[in-house]
């Protein structure tokens, strides 16, 4: 996978399957979410559950089914845009040697006390930028 700064591998579980025997389309979003959890932990050193971000955009293009016998999916992530309070990330999901989906999300860092967005911490921006170069 090229043009991505980070990769994580996730197990395909029986509970992820739908009646047709492949991973349900909604589970793809859960895989992306877990990839973000791993990224924030490993790259930014914070738990995604410890910070105040909201997902404001999610787009998934499904390209190939994922089945239980694929065993794992690899999620590659690349930060595409860093705004004052937002981060847009591109994803490529692979299973069984094929691209199963491509996706893009935008998350906004929010102030839960006052509402609205707040600037991303400079340390996060620096870490994200360092991987992009």
From TrEMBL:
It holds the Pfam family 4HBT_2. This is Acyl-CoA thioester hydrolase. InterPro entries: 4-hydroxybenzoyl-CoA_TE, HotDog_dom_sf. SUPFAM superfamilies: Thioesterase/thiol ester dehydrase-isomerase (SSF54637). It comes from the Archaea. CDD domains: 4HBT. Transmembrane segments: none annotated. Belongs to the 4-hydroxybenzoyl-CoA thioesterase family. Keywords: Hydrolase. GO terms for molecular function: fatty acyl-CoA hydrolase activity. The keyword Metal-binding does not apply. The keyword Ribonucleoprotein does not apply.
């Amino acid at each position: 996978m090229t043009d991505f700064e980070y990769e994580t591998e996730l197990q395909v579980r029986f509970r992820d399957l739908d009646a047709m025997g492949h991973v349900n389309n909604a589970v793809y979003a859960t895989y992306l979410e877990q990839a973000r959890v791993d990224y924030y932990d490993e790259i930014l050193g914070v738990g995604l559950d410890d910070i105040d971000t909201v997902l404001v955009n999610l787009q998934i293009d499904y390209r190939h089914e994922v089945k239980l016998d694929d065993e794992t999916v690899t999620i590659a992530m690349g930060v595409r845009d860093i705004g004052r309070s937002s981060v847009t990330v591109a994803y490529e999901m692979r299973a069984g040697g094929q691209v199963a989906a491509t996706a893009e999300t935008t998350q906004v860092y929010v102030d839960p006390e006052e509402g609205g967005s707040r600037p991303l911490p400079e340390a996060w921006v620096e870490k994200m930028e360092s991987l992009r170069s």
